[in-house]
Amino acid sequence: MKFALLLSALLPSTFMAQQTDWFADAKLGIFIHWGMYAVDGTSESWAFHNETVPYATYMRQMNGFSAAKYNPNQWAKLIKESGARYCVITTKHHDGLALYNTQIKTPQAPHQKNWNPKYPLSTKYQTPAKQDLISPLFTSLRQEQLKVGAYYSLLDWSSFDYPTFLKDSSRYQINDEPKRWNNFLTFMHGQIAEINTQLRPDLFWFDGDWEHSEIEWQAAQIDSIIHQSNPNAILNGRLHSFGNYDTPEQNMPITHPSRPIWELCLTTNDNWGYRPLDNNYKTPFELLCIFSECLGMGGNLLLDIGPKADGTFPDEQVKILQEFGRWTSKHQSAIYGTSAGIPYGHYHGNSTLSKDSLVLNLFVPSPQGSDLHASNKMLPIYMKGLKNKPSMIELIGSSTPLAVSEVGKISWSEVPGTLFIQIPISEMDPMISVIQLTFNEPIELYRGKGGFH
Ligand code: GLC
Question: Which of 63, 191, 222, 369 has a Cα-to-Cα distance from 208 of 20 to 30 A?
Answer without folding.
Answer: 63
